Amino acid sequence: MSRATFVLSATIAALVGSTAHADDSQWHVSAGPGALVVPKYPGAADSDAFPLVDVDIAYGRFFLNWWHGIGAYLIDDGRRQLGASLWFRRGRDRNDSDRVATLEPIDMAPAAHAFYSEHIGSLALSASVTQTLAKGGGVSADGSVAWQFQPYRPAHVQVGIRATVGDPRYMRTWFGITAGQARASGLAEYDVDPGLASVGGFAVVSYQLSPDWVATAYAGCDVLVGDASDSPVVERATMPMFAVSLQRRFGNR
Hints:
The protein is mainly β. The protein contains 4 helices and 14 strands. Helix content is 14%, strand content 51%.
């Protein structure tokens, strides 16, 4: 068992007792249809579009949602959230672009995720660390700072900046070309150092259509930097992302 798996399992097990006797009032459910558009892989010129179910389910300290996965909160007091979860990291297929057609695919893999967020006045701060639970997957960390405001009462807007860093395994997996891969693919051998992989910005707009219905739109763009941007697998350094959803709130949420 990896260290990340052990820590996550221990965290969830430690919280079972405190949630086991939670009553029905601790169920909070929001769900609805949505769509997501993201690059096929970091640095790809083409994007994939996915339908999604924008779900946010919580029972006591436990949760299931599409941005963190399934896990538990250590802290969730309305201002701060600290938690751990399991989810999946997308992979990379040979048919995603000509640049990676002769490279071994990167399989979708489970990942252990730890995160913290805090609201300080009109600022929202967040940080997360993700460990891919597969051979060679590596660790990445993300951080963001966002300004929140309400231009008028039904609308809520968040505008922010973020950055992603990767450890040696993460950077080699996604951006490096080993000597063996170079011989098999014809691409140039490429060594990449750990560190900053991308920086970017984003905006989120939520609109309260009624007491039970909320519409949300997200737009963001990350830019690969440094060694990541110069990788032979990168077709385009800019990585635009879009998402929309319509959620209905049930019960107490």
